[in-house]
Amino acid sequence: MGSIDTLHLGAAFAAAFLAGAINSVAGGGTLISFPTLLWLGLPPIVANATSTVAIWPGNVGSIWGFRRELKRAEPRMRLACIPGAIGGLIGAILLRMTPGKLFEHLVPFLILFAVVLFTVQAPIQRRLRLVHAHRSRGWLVIGFLLLLLVGIYGGYFGAGATIMLLSILAILGMTDILEMNAVTSLISLCINGVASILFIVAKLVYWPYVLVMAVGALAGGYGAAGVARRIGRTMVRRFVIVVGFSIAIVMFVRMARG
Q1: CB of 44 within 8 A of CB of 150?
Q2: Residues 6+ apart with CB under 8 A from 5
């Protein structure tokens, strides 16, 4: 891309600000930041990589916020970041190998998949409270393999990965939602961190947007969270769902016309 104007930078900052605020309350901020970068003219793979790198500082903030809960979590649960990081690397490599045209056709399906996951997050969590947790070594191995797969998805695209991580941790025996959020934040930090390094090395990142979006995401997470909480978690979730489905429909229509 060539030079960008202040309006485009402002739009990128606003999208990241909103994404940071949404992530602090309900999750799903990527469903705002990624499509915005597409609208701003970035190629799909570059938009995906740029969004991952730009929103990554929010994971650091989450880890700091959940530092006490992370210390309380079982050590073996903290080890879950290892398969997550390996998966994140594999997913990022797969994205790097994916032809741009193919990924462009995959984008509507990936967004739709992420929105559906986000939509069913609450009922899934309610059902998981009734699931008998398994803490044996065999189930731990299965859980870590599932975490590897989620890491691959997270490194490749990422939106909606949080609900998958929470589901796996619940099945593995974690019951404290704050500890689960802490471990999920750690795994996400590793997945996105490893993927970000590869994206940067592969020169897939558009830095002018990354810099303003990183500031926006941090500001949104800290400054707008209070406003979002006053609006209510339910209203924020509904907003993300409506926007996500609308974007998916627009993407499918554009693909059909193209």
Answers
A1: no
A2: none
| Spatial CA neighbour of 204 closest among 58, 52, 87, 86 | 52
Do 198 and 89 contact (CB within 8 A), yes or no? yes
- Give residue-wise pLDDT tens across range 33-80: 888 999 999 999 999 999 999 988 777 777 777 788 888 888 878 888
Reported as a pLDDT band with limits 50, 70 and 90, residue 163 is confident
d(CA 213, CA 20): 10
- C-alpha to C-alpha distance for 64 and 181, rounded to whole angstroms: 12
The tokens describing 204, both together, are 């897939």
Kind and range of the H or E run holding 172: none
For the chain, domain boundaries: 6-257
232/241 Cα distance (integer angstroms): 14
The secondary structure of 67-111 as a DSSP string is: HHHHHHS-HHHHTTHHHHHHHHHHHHHHHHHS-HHHHHHHHHHHH
CA separation for the pair 195, 193 (Å, rounded): 5
Closest CA to 70 of 188, 151, 233: 188
Q: Give exposure, 76-105, as e/b (b: 16+ Cβ within 10 Å).
A: ebeebbebbbbbbbbbbbebbebeeeebbe
CA 10/CA 160 separation, integer angstroms: 26
Distance CA 117, CA 247 (A): 15
Give Cβ neighbours of residue 255 (< 8 Å, ≥ 6 apart). Answer: 104, 105, 108
Rounded Cα distance, 217 and 58, in Å: 6
Q: What is the DSSP letter of 224?
A: I
